[in-house]
Amino acid sequence: MRYPVFFAAALALAVAQPVLAQSAPARVSDAALACPKQDVAADLPGKLIDAMLSGATRTPEGKALFERFEAAAAQCAEKHSVPASLRGTYAAYAFDLVMRDELARRMRAAKVPVEALDEALGYGPGRPNPVIQRVEQSHVDKMTAAARKRGYDLEKAPEEVLRYVGMYVGAQSGLVEDLAALR
Q1: What is the sign, positive or negative, of the torsion defined by CA atoms of 129, 130, 135, 139?
Q2: C-alpha distances in Å from residue 161, one per residue of 8, 11, 57, 107, 111
Q3: Rg of the chain's alpha carbons, rounded to an integer?
Q4: Alpha carbon distance 97, 16 (integer Å)
Q5: Cα angle, residue 48 at apex, residues 47 and 49 outer, rounded to 5°
Q6: What is the pLDDT, as a whole number, of residue 2?
Q7: Angle at the Cα of 91 (from 81 to 98), degrees rounded to 5?
Q8: How far is 80 from 86, CA to CA, in rounded Å?
Q9: Closest CA to 10 of 152, 125, 128, 139
């Protein structure tokens, strides 16, 4: 099976995330939490994902993409008066948010039942929303079974789609952790 791709993709996303800042008593507004979806250029998350999957994050072009993202996240933080003590966590949140949304879009385009994966792992309103530090075989088994129930066979998915799934889990987990610190 090609499941190690899940693990590698989730790790790649974790390594690319901005360093999380220490938590502080101040919290950020709903407008600040919505800002990355509105202010990060629509093409940027896809370009970041492509750079991460191709290993081009250390190239001048890849570095420029991350700098564009960091500037957009910093602009949102400034516009919405995110406290300095939370700026690192906010940047991680912004990254996880736009990555998660772009990965979900790509997975849906490949007919992956994203909602079934979320349900299988416990993500969403009224669910436990776990922080998954490492994608384990049990997670893969749950996602595979949930996708199969919805008519999609993850075992037959192209490697690129499996990477999207692994990165998506990393982004979802990151969002849980980031939001806990920001709210």
Answers
A1: negative
A2: 13, 16, 20, 7, 10
A3: 16
A4: 13
A5: 90
A6: 47
A7: 115
A8: 12
A9: 139
**Separation between Cα atoms, residue 160 and residue 168, nearest integer Å:** 12
Cβ neighbours around 115 below 10 Å, total: 14
Report how far residue 100's alpha carbon sits from residue 7's, in angstroms, rounded to the nearest whole number. 16
Residue 19 CB burial class (10 angstroms; 0-12, 13-18, ≥19): exposed
**Which tens digits make up the pLDDT trace of 116-171?**
999 999 999 999 999 999 999 999 999 999 999 999 999 999 999 999 999 999 99
Phi first, then psi, for residue 171 (nearest 5°) are -70, -45
**Structure token pair of residue 103:** 């990965």
CB 88 within 8 A of CB 20: yes
Look up residue 152 and give its amino acid.
Y
pTM of the prediction? 0.86
Of 10, 31, 140, 150, residue with least CA distance to 80: 31
d(C-alpha 7, C-alpha 72), whole Å:
29
Q: Are 95 and 18 in contact (CB under 8 A)?
A: yes
* Residue pLDDT, tens place only, 1-60: 444 554 455 555 554 554 344 444 558 999 999 999 999 999 999 999 999 999 999 999
- DSSP class of 122: T
Q: How far apart are CA 165 and CA 175, in angstroms?
A: 15
Residues in the chain: 183
